[in-house]
Automatic annotation (TrEMBL), chain A:
One GO process term, biological-process aspect: TRAMP-dependent tRNA surveillance pathway
Coarse class of the protein's main subcellular location: cytoplasm
A Pfam family matched in the record: RNase_PH_C
Compartments it resides in: Cytoplasm; Nucleus, Nucleolus
A GO CC annotation given for this chain: nuclear exosome (RNase complex)
Keyword Cell membrane included in the entry's annotation: no
Name recorded for this polypeptide: Exosome complex component RRP45
PANTHER family membership: EXOSOME COMPLEX COMPONENT RRP45 (PTHR11097:SF14), EXOSOME COMPLEX EXONUCLEASE RIBOSOMAL RNA PROCESSING PROTEIN (PTHR11097)
Keywords: Cytoplasm, Exosome, Nucleus, RNA-binding, rRNA processing
Automatic annotation (TrEMBL), chain B:
TM segment ranges: none
Species assigned in the record: Morchella conica CCBAS932
BP terms from Gene Ontology: CUT catabolic process; exonucleolytic trimming to generate mature 3'-end of 5.8S rRNA from tricistronic rRNA transcript (SSU-rRNA, 5.8S rRNA, LSU-rRNA); nuclear polyadenylation-dependent rRNA catabolic process; poly(A)-dependent snoRNA 3'-end processing; TRAMP-dependent tRNA surveillance pathway; U4 snRNA 3'-end processing
Protein name: Ribosomal RNA-processing protein 40
Statement: the UniProt record of this protein carries the keyword Ubl conjugation: no
Top-level division of the source organism's lineage: Eukaryota
Pfam families membership: KH_6, Rrp40_N, RRP40_S1
Cell compartments where the protein resides: Nucleus
Molecular functions (GO terms): RNA binding
Organism lineage: Eukaryota, Fungi, Dikarya, Ascomycota, Pezizomycotina
From TrEMBL, chain C:
Residue ranges constituting the Exoribonuclease phosphorolytic domain according to the UniProt record: 8-130, 135-197
GO biological process: nuclear mRNA surveillance; poly(A)-dependent snoRNA 3'-end processing; rRNA catabolic process; rRNA processing; U4 snRNA 3'-end processing
Native source species: Morchella conica CCBAS932
GO MF terms, alphabetically ordered: RNA binding
Name of protein: Exosome complex subunit Rrp46
Similarity section: Belongs to the RNase PH family.
Highest taxon of the lineage: Eukaryota
Length: 292, 265, 239
């Protein structure tokens, strides 16, 4: 399979030289994200996130399953992130690259291990029946910032998702279809958002939301996951350039502002979507009445 | 000149008739000739017919570059073997995965001998001409002009920055738009509608306008890569981004874009 | 049920070509990369190697995706002028975004086939891969009892159908691909083919076709419209 082509010497020198002059190739500030766009599908739990040219799709699904024997009161929550050839021909199906493993681990830590989802609420009958919620993250277009984009997509899809309502009658569990009973949202405890920093020139320059070209040239990187309350969910720094503790604090401070902006934008889009849904449902109802 | 939209499988309805008996019909890109007299499109595009040159071709846009003889391309050195350099010819999809590999013989430079040949390191950017293009063989490159045997601008591109554009945009920057413009003007003359219709763009107003004010060097590769260099990083970035943004703009819009960009600079 | 079709191309800047096709609730994205370097074991001295990868919206690749891959490959491989690019790979990736139904029986899988094929054809056209013709696909159901023919059926209609057919036609109106499920007589099949041909025709019929109800169905017209818009946009500089 073809490999990703490294940036040529002149591109490399130019990008790094420009950074010294406080310039980025796409004209952004060092501390600004690319344009973010979030849209939702017709189905519940389908979120389409565009971060500049990077595009990620997250799809949430749930089915009734048996809880793990060591955790009888918890439901199952799983996130899969597979880099497919659609994002870049350098990604092959069925083979795990280092990048893929790191990405999967990071998203797992950021969302699942930070207890973003209340897994106890997914339990139906202790030790016997529970919901298995699954997030499938699909990468459509890779232009850097896959971690940040997939985290936003996953939390957006989780917030958008509605699972079918269930009622328990003794031993019997009834799952109501979406038309029978209003489906219920997942119980989400907090919304973690990832902000990835890339470091250049021995840590003098740190960029937020690097493009693929910038990612290929960076000396080191670090991902901070925060929620809007300023609680750090995880910090990942897998090798690369060592950076000072004070610089880390500075990064976290900027990240908090970004996280609050992104969370607010996500909330706005969710509200818009639910308003559109209500309007459409009302319209359907009135046409149904007219038909009668 | 007539233009019409063709889809794969569509037969070219009217082929130009040669004006002299010994001129052969030239079938250009996007079309397949099926003997004895059928020419079929194999991709979507606008059909262009030039009666004077007795040529038909399809005008379309794409991102994947397929080498063709005498094209000037911007390639990157991957490694060197005992007698040639191995280069990657990236396409306009940024930053190109799955590039085409090409050979650049060590002696394919003007007046190069084993001792005087230029040394290119992996990662170098080279402006070269395709000297061999055959679907069954790896393409070969040369760094001199076919006729004059001189460098004529080919060779290593030092410094500067490479920007991606679509293949159609790269062709326009190399002046192909002018040819289409000439054909259009000729067609108007023939129809006697010169006065109407107004100005026809040549698709490279952006360069003309930038060149009037800024000082910069530029090399355009038909593989959808544009190399720009100047004294100032800001100027290089400005030129690059103006060219990238001009893709879908008309001549007047390109001029306005450049004016706006220069004002901000 | 009148399902509305929608399509778009060129939205993935890094792929050589991309296309999306929405038919009713089914939504598919396809991308094409190539001709590019091929793995040695797939290399063919005279022809390009064509690869189709289908990725499900939910869960991991199962037999359903493998089945779709095989069907798509059998329809698209003969469409591509493979001898134009020997020793290369043309990779088609199909991503299912949303499906009409979640139950995995043969008929709901069939509902994915036509939109997937249309998305892939759009991506191939966008990538300017040399093609012999344009293929437009649709689903036709033959109803139980009444014997009616429903073009692009919804899930409810599918449950009441005696047989389901996925048909694809070339731009000259020739039948290029058929996949059927259920029992049917040959005469019924002929009616199904006629209904499908009407929807898939890529032939330019002037303006009358766009004014009627049929515009919701006309897959061929839609592909033509999307591609002419692209060429118009590419040639905009000349205006």
């Amino acid at each position: 399979m073809p490999k990703e082509l490294e940036p040529s010497t002149c591109e490399k020198n130019f990008v790094l030289e420009a950074l010294k002059e406080n310039l980025r190739i796409d004209g952004r500030n060092f501390e600004s994200f690319r344009e973010l766009e979030i849209s939702f599908g017709e189905d519940y739990g389908l979120a389409d996130v565009q971060l500049g040219k990077t595009r990620v799709l997250a799809r949430v699904s749930a089915e009734v399953s048996k809880p793990f024997s060591d955790r009888p009161f918890d439901g199952i929550f799983q996130i899969t992130t597979e880099l497919g050839p659609m994002a870049s021909p350098a990604f092959e199906t069925g083979r795990f690259t280092e990048q893929e493993v790191l990405l999967a681990r990071l998203i797992e830590k950021a969302i699942r291990r930070s207890n973003a989802i209340d897994t106890e609420s997914l339990c139906i009958v202790a030790g016997q029946k529970c919901w298995a919620v699954r997030v499938d993250v699909h990468f459509l277009h890779h232009d850097g910032g896959l971690i940040d984009a997939s985290c936003i997509a996953a939390v957006a899809a989780l917030q958008h998702y509605r699972r079918p309502d269930v009622s328990v009658d003794g031993e019997k569990v009834i799952i109501h279809t979406l038309t029978e009973r209003v489906p219920v949202p997942l119980s989400i405890l907090h919304i973690p958002i990832c902000v990835t920093y890339s470091f250049y020139h021995g840590g003098e320059v740190s960029l937020v939301d690097a493009t693929l070209q910038e990612e290929q040239l960076r000396d080191g990187d670090m991902t901070i996951t925060l929620n809007k309350f300023g609680e750090v969910c995880q910090i990942a720094k897998a090798g690369g350039l060592p950076i000072g503790a004070l610089a880390l604090l500075q990064c976290a401070r900027i990240a908090l502002v970004k996280v609050q902006e992104i969370t607010a934008f996500l909330q706005k889009r969710l509200e818009e979507d639910s308003a559109a849904r209500t309007r459409r449902d009302n319209l359907l109802e009135s046409t149904a009445q007219n038909a009668r | 000149m007539t233009t019409m939209l063709l889809f794969p499988g569509d037969v070219v309805p009217e082929l130009p008739t040669p004006q002299k008996t010994n001129t052969a019909l030239k079938v250009g890109p996007g079309l397949t000739y099926t003997p004895p007299d059928k020419v079929v499109a194999h991709r979507v595009g606008e059909l262009h017919v030039d009666d004077r040159k007795c040529a038909v071709w399809m005008e379309g846009n794409g991102k994947r570059y397929i080498p063709s003889l005498n094209d000037a391309v911007i390639a990157t050195v991957l490694r060197s073997t005992s007698d040639s350099y191995i280069l990657a010819i990236p396409s306009s999809t940024s930053p190109a995965p799955a590039s085409i590999q090409a050979l650049l013989p060590h002696l394919a430079f003007p007046q190069a001998t084993k001792k005087t040949r230029p040394i290119l390191h992996p990662g170098c950017t080279v402006y070269a001409r395709v000297s061999l293009a055959n679907k069954h063989m790896d393409p070969e490159l040369e760094c001199y002009d076919a006729e004059s045997q001189k460098a004529e601008g080919f060779g290593e591109l030092k410094g500067g920055m490479v920007f991606n554009v679509s293949l159609g945009m790269a062709r326009r920057l190399l002046g192909d738009g002018k040819k289409i413009r000439q054909l259009q003007l000729r067609a108007r003359k023939a129809e006697g509608t010169e006065a109407e219709g107004g100005e026809i763009s040549n698709g490279m107003e952006v360069l003309e306008e930038l060149g009037r004010v800024l000082a910069f060097e530029i090399a355009v590769g038909r593989n959808g890569r544009v190399w720009v260099d100047s004294e100032d990083t800001k100027v290089t970035l400005c030129v690059g981004s103006c060219i990238q943004k001009s893709e879908y703009l008309t001549g007047d819009e390109q001029r306005a874009l450049v004016r706006e960009a220069l004002r901000k600079l | 049920m009148v399902s509305s079709n929608a399509a778009s191309i060129g939205f993935l800047p890094r792929a050589d070509g991309s296309g999306s096709f929405v038919s009713g609730r089914t939504s598919i994205i396809a991308s094409v990369t190539g001709p590019m370097e091929v793995r040695i074991r797939d290399e063919h001295p005279q022809k390009a190697h064509v690869e189709v990868i289908v990725r499900p919206a939910i869960g991991v690749t199962s037999t359903r995706e493998k089945y779709l891959e095989a069907r798509l490959l059998s329809a698209l491989k003969p469409l591509i002028l493979r001898s134009n690019h020997p020793r290369t790979l043309i990779q088609i990736v199909v991503q299912v975004v949303q499906t009409a139904g979640t139950d995995e029986n043969a008929s709901t899988t069939l509902l994915l086939l036509a939109p997937a094929m249309n998305a892939a054809v759009l991506a191939l056209l966008d990538a300017a891969v040399p093609l012999k013709s344009v293929l437009a696909a649709t689903t036709v159901a033959f109803m139980k009892g009444s014997g009616g023919v429903v073009v692009e059926p919804g899930l409810d209609e599918l449950k009441n159908s005696a047989s389901t057919h996925v048909l694809a036609f070339t731009s000259t109106g020739q039948l290029g691909f058929v996949e059927s499920d259920g029992e049917f007589e040959y005469e019924d099949f002929e009616r199904v083919v006629e209904a499908g041909r009407g929807v898939c025709s890529v032939e330019q019929k002037g303006h009358h076709a766009m004014d009627t109800e049929a515009k919701y169905h006309a897959v061929g017209e839609l592909i033509r419209k999307i591609m002419s818009q692209k060429v118009e946009m590419d040639m905009r500089w000349r205006a």
